[in-house]
Amino acid sequence: MAGQVLHHGAPNAPLRRPLAYPADLLTPLADTPLIPRSQSTTMLVQKSPSTAYFWLLSSGWLGGHHFYLRDPILGGLSVMLCWTGLPLLAAILELPTLHRRVRRLNRLLRADYHGRVDGWDLPAPSCARCHRNIAWVILHSQGGSISRNHQLLRLTAPWWRHSGLLHPAYRDPHAGDHLCPSCTGEITPVVSQNVPPGRNNALTPPSPLLIGALLLAALWMLVHGMGGALQHTYALYSHWQTTPGVVTYNAVDMLTHHTPSWLGQNVTYQPQVQFRYVWENQRWSMGGLLAQAPPNFSSRARAEHYLRRYYPIGQVIEARVNPDDPEQAYALVRPLYHPLWVIAGISSLFLALHLGRRRRRLLKLQ
């Protein structure tokens, strides 16, 4: 019956104490068109985690590739950080949401037979007729009890419906679209759409954008503190002057790194380059290390492929020479670490999490 509040114990019995509502709240909503279920916003799939993992994997691959050219151990750690560490951090950030969902389900299972359920304890889709949050309508019924045969099961996902976790009193006897009790006439119509202030704020986790900004600040301080000396060394090398050179010899050396006994020995392969260059009308020959931070490879084949691709015999290169000591020269000078890929991955991850959280919040308010 439209416009009549029903008692939760007896579906067809009106309340003994009539409720006073303004006349504009009693406006029937039956003329409002009903949108199809296929167009309902409750079935939208949140794809923001997929975007976050895409940027995470791409940044981790590129960052690990840059690290791996110099040190396979550091490169492997970089890939593990970007591929496993950051997704694990994202999962930890979702623990408060999972905890709230578990508590919500427990409170729903402990609810009585009369439908006295807090609307905030139910997953709330939007009404197909008035496009409002169904749980919000139930919460703001202002004392209007919902009948026992109301389709409370419409407030839950189909998976919970078929799993048997809901009380038998909440089983849906009908199979229709999502409608709020205000549109079905079981409670006095509620037309306001303002979300109550201060509700559930204590359980709201901090914004992923804020957490990401704090993490980036901590990462920047760590890089600035630990890499200051390395960057100073790179700055010295970068100020060396450039001069043309020709590669005359290349080879691959095998290096054995001593590690703790439980890890065993780590063997890497390091390319070596010898080149000639002219400085102040004098011909010099430099052999040995390719760079101030030579790349290491896990196999000899990869190191030989690197030499054939970038430093074949007869290749003209741009060498950097120390103007104070022309005997010191390198064929390659580059930064000793590349934190930009890690920073880009963290920024993309937390930005995607923030946008997805904001999108879910907007869907709940519809």
Automatic annotation (TrEMBL):
Residue limits of the TM2 domain? 46-94
Looking at the record, the residues that make up the DUF3592 domain are: 264-330
Kindly give the membrane topology term recorded for this protein.
Multi-pass membrane protein
What are the protein's UniProt keywords?
A: Membrane, Transmembrane, Transmembrane helix
* Protein localization: Membrane
- TM ranges are 75-95, 209-230, 336-356
**Taxonomically, which superkingdom?**
Bacteria
Its cellular-component GO annotations read: membrane
Kindly name one Pfam family recorded for this protein.
Answer: DUF3592
Q: Which InterPro entries match?
A: DUF3592 (IPR021994), TM2 (IPR007829)
Protein known as: Uncharacterized protein
This protein's species is Magnetococcus marinus (strain ATCC BAA-1437 / JCM 17883 / MC-1)
